[in-house]
Amino acid sequence: MTENDMLIEVRDLRKVFRRGGRDIVAVHGASFSMASGRNLGIVGESGSGKSTIARMLMGVEKATAGTVSVCGEDMTIPARSAAARRRRAKLTQMVYQDPFGSLDSRQTVASCLREVLRIHGVTAAAAREARIAELCDLVGLSAVQRERTPRDLSGGQRQRVAIARALAVQPEIIVLDEAVAALDISIQAQILNLLADVQRETGTNYVLISHDLAVVGHLTDDVVVMRHGRIVEQGVTAEVLGNPTDEYTRILRDSVPSLDWRQPGVLEAVAERVGPRTNFATRNISVPSTLERTR
User: Fold this and answer.
1) Is 9 helix (H, G, I), strand (E, B) or coil?
2) Average pLDDT score over residue span 150-170
3) Which residue has the higher pLDDT, 278 or 110?
4) Which of 178, 187, 242, 254 could form a disulfide with 156 if both were Cys (CB 3.0 to 4.6 A apart)?
5) How far apart, in whole angstroms, are the C-alpha atoms of residue 233 and residue 265?
6) Per-residue pLDDT averaged across 14-30, rounded?
7) What is the rounded distance in angstroms from the CA atom of residue 207 to the CA atom of residue 187?
8) Cα angle value 253/155/256 (rounded, 5°)
9) HSE (CB half, 13 Å, CA atoms) of 207?
10) Whether 10 contacts 32, CB under 8 Å
11) Residue 214 has pLDDT above 90, yes or no
C-alpha cells in the first residue's frame, strides 16, 4: 500500500488546553493512519481524547504539535478563505451525537439541504430539488418528512437528516462522533445498517468516534484505542477486539453487555479488574445481547 492510498495520516499529534492557569494535555503524541476503503474506529471512555482528535481531523481545533493530513491536505493550517472552507467541506463532514442540537430547528429538511447545496455551487433550482430527493431517498426520508422541521421528527429520523446533510457535498470522509449513542438499541441498528448501505452506494469512508465496542465492531475495519489522551492499542478491529494485548482494551471489551455476562465468573472477573466500587455479583443483572455484525 502506498502513501497515496492513505486518506488520513496523523503523526505525533499533541493537544494542550489551558484551563485555570494550568496546562491540560488532551492528546499525547498520537500517530495513526486510515487507508482508503477502510473504516476507522477511535474508541475510549469519556475524556480519553477521541473527540478532540476528531475536531483536529476536521480542522476546527488547532493542534499544539504534530501533523494531521486528510486526503493530502494539512489540516493544521487554518482555512482562512470561503473557498478553502468549501474545499475542506468536501474532504470531511461530521455527524454529531445530538441530531436535534446540530440542526436548525426552524428549517425543514428540504430547506436545510437546499442551503447546503446552494453554498456548494448547485445554483439551478431544478438540480437542487432533484439532489434533495436523491439524498432523502438514500437515507430513507419520505416526501412528507422532507417538509418537516426537526422538532416534528423522531431521533432516528433527525439522524437520517444529519447524514443526508453530510452526504450533500459528497465528502471523502464522514466523521461519526458518537452518532448513535443517543438512540435506543433498535434505532441504533437501523442507523448502522443505513450507514453500511450508504457506503456501498457512495463509497464514502467513515471515522467512528465511540465508547461502544459493539458499534465499533459492527462498522469499522481498523481501530485505535485511547486512554487518558494516549493510544494504548491499534490494529485490525477484529484482531484488537478478539485478542486485545492491552489490559485497558480487555476491560473495555469485557464491559460490553452480552449474554456471556450470565456465565459463572465473568462479572466477578470484570469487577476485580475495574475495582470494588460495584459489586456485580450481588446484583440481579439482565442485559440484552450486543448488536450482531451484519456486514
Assistant:
1) strand
2) 93
3) 110
4) 187
5) 26
6) 93
7) 20
8) 10
9) 30
10) yes
11) no
For the chain, what percentages of helix, strand and coil (3-state, to nearest 5) are there?
Answer: 40, 25, 35
Q: Checking DSSP bridges between strand 6-19 and strand 22-35, what pairing results, if any? A: antiparallel
- Give the pLDDT band of residue 275 (cuts 50, 70, 90): low
Q: CB under 8 Å to 203, separation ≥6 — which residues?
A: none
pTM, full prediction: 0.82
Q: What do you get for the CA distance between the two ends of the chain, in Å?
A: 24
Task: Select the CATH number that applies to the domain covering 1-91+172-245 from these four: 1.20.1260.100, 2.60.40.60, 3.40.50.300, 3.40.50.360.
Answer: 3.40.50.300
User: The C-alpha cell of 191 is what?
Assistant: 442507523
User: Where do the domains of the chain lie?
Assistant: 1-91+172-245, 102-170, 246-282
C-alpha cell at 236: 485490525
Q: Are 49 and 30 in contact, with CB atoms under 8 Å apart?
A: yes
- pLDDT surpasses 90 at 211: no
| Whole-angstrom distance, CA of residue 159 vs CA of residue 182 | 10
CB-based contact 163:195 (threshold 8 Å) = yes
CB 14 within 8 A of CB 191: no
